[in-house]
Structure formats: C-alpha cells, structure tokens
Write a structure and sequence with these properties.
By secondary structure, the chain is mainly beta. It has 5 helices and 24 strands.
Length: 297
C-alpha cells in the first residue's frame, strides 16, 4: 500500500512539475506592496481579454498559485490555491480586499487545501484537502465543502462516503446547476473522471465518464453549469505534459468525441465564469468565446 501511495504522489508531482516547466508565460515581476486601497472594477480591475490568453493580475496573483483562478458566481470573490492554502480577495464597497487565506484554510499548511470552486448557486465552496477525514482515500486526499452563512463560510465538512471512498486520490471537483459532481480519481495505473448525480438530496454511486476516460489519463474536470460541455486535462508522457481538451454533449445527451484545446497554454485546471464571459487556465484568462466558437451547431 505504501508503494502505491508513493506512486500516486509521484504522478501528482510530475504533473505539478509540468505546470511550472512548460507554462508558456512571459517573465513577470510580482509586487508585494501592491496598493489595494483604490483597486476596483470587475475581476480585480483587469483589462478584459480577447480570444488570446493573457496573464491575469500578474502583480496580485503570484507564481506560487497552483490550480486555476476561480470566482464566485456573482464575481464578487476570487479564489486560488497557493502552497500554504486557499487564497481569497473580495469586492467590498467597490474595492478589492488584500488577498488572504480563506477563513477555513488558515493556520494549517499541512492540510494542502487545493482546487477551490464555488457552486453555481453561490451557497457552497468545494475543495480537496489532506486534512484528516476518516475516509480510506489513498494518501489522505478527500473532497470537502463549506456552506455560506451570514458571517462567511462554515467549518469544512467532508463530502459523503459514496464520493470520498471511491478508491484512489481525489483530485478536483466541479459541480453543475443540477448538483451533479464531476471529479478526478487517481487509482493504480488509472487516472479517470467520474460523475455523481444528486438525487433527492443524496449523491448516487459515481459513474466513470467512459467517452472522456477513453483518452487515457484524464483529470481536473470543469463542468459547464448546464452540463453542455466539460473541459479537462489529459496527462501525457508519464505526467510530463498536460493538455486541455473539451467535449460537448450531443442532441442525444451523450458526450461527443473530445477535441484538444490548442489555444490553451500548458497548465492544469480550468474555470469558466458563471456568466460565460471568461475562461481561466491557471493564471491566464481569455474570452470564453473561444469555447463557443467550438460548440456544435
């Protein structure tokens, strides 16, 4: 078992190294003294991008970020993960706050909280973590969530056993309008994407996405709120290369053959804003029109 755990963690390490070594990013200078006192406007006051990916807020979001930038459905909060936890900045009274660790991610860098995403209805925040869960997930990675309250996010809770005891390392969850969860599992020699429907308030047994998984090693899904498409990563060369793919649903509600997103820079994880305006790829963003350009007639 210990050997298998080490193998799985090595795969993750290879994927992470590919992000930092292969990212097509120009050299940027981060500014630790960035002035937030007058920073307003949507998406940290950044100039909206076109169809070409550009660096998002390079003087605010550092190179320490791990997975893709995400935002709350109302675009009033922006989240990303760094090595010491999940970071957040909020638009309050027209000004963005200085980024800080999210309330539920403070004080414990050994938890490795990662891959945050807010549900489409803005009531829950999902993430994966190595904090003790009581589940038998390999290496300790499990899915957690917080509920929004009047005073902020609640204390984290684990997703139920039907999700977290699906064998293997749990890696990035995404949620649709219907409450269906899409997530990655690394287990043995397989890296696959599963979905679990929310039926009468309970999650159904996870099912593999066979059309997507037929590509080989696939991970890090982002599901469109209406489930009309899914963006995900395909891992090649033993983890040394990470490519982006997309699959749309056909008229028969089945996933169509995935196509590679050649416009996306190398990296891991993606996110599309709730209004469908922008797509994020790690610390880059572009107009989500590049997705609509590919949508079947």
């Amino acid at each position: 078992m210990e050997y298998k755990n080490r193998s799985m963690l090595w795969i993750i390490l290879l994927v992470s190294l590919s992000i930092f070594s292969c990212a097509e990013s120009p050299a940027e200078t981060e500014d630790d003294e960035y002035d937030f006192t007058n920073l307003g406007g949507e998406y940290l006051g950044q100039t909206p991008p076109g169809r070409t990916f550009v660096r998002f807020a390079p003087h605010i979001i550092t190179d320490e970020m791990i997975h893709s930038v995400t935002a709350s459905p109302d675009s009033q909060e922006i989240y990303w993960a760094e090595r010491n936890g999940i970071m957040v900045t909020k638009l309050i009274d027209g000004r963005w706050t200085t980024p800080e660790l999210a309330s539920f991610s403070q004080g414990r860098t050994d938890f490795y909280d990662d891959a945050p995403v807010v549900s489409p209805d803005n009531t829950k925040l999902y993430f994966n973590s190595r904090r003790p869960s009581g589940y038998a997930a390999v290496s300790g990675y499990s899915f957690w969530y917080c509920e929004r309250t009047a005073s902020g996010w609640s204390e984290p809770q684990t997703l139920p056993a039907v999700i977290n005891e699906t064998g293997g390392i749990h890696w990035q969850v995404s949620v649709s309008d219907s409450g269906t969860l899409y997530f990655g599992i690394i287990s043995g020699a397989a890296i696959e994407i599963y979905s679990s429907r929310l039926v009468d308030g309970a999650y159904a047994t996870p099912e593999p996405l066979d059309v997507i998984n037929s590509l080989g090693w696939v991970i890090c899904p982002f599901i469109a709120p209406d489930e009309s498409y899914i963006i995900f990563n395909k891992v090649e060369n033993g983890g040394a290369l990470v490519e982006y793919y997309i699959s749309f649903k056909g008229n028969d509600n089945q996933w169509l053959a995935p196509q590679r997103l050649t416009q996306f820079p190398s990296g891991e994880s993606s996110f599309v804003t709730r209004d469908g305006s922008y797509v994020f790829c790690k610390s880059y963003w572009a107009s989500a029109q590049i997705i609509e350009d590919l949508r079947p007639d």
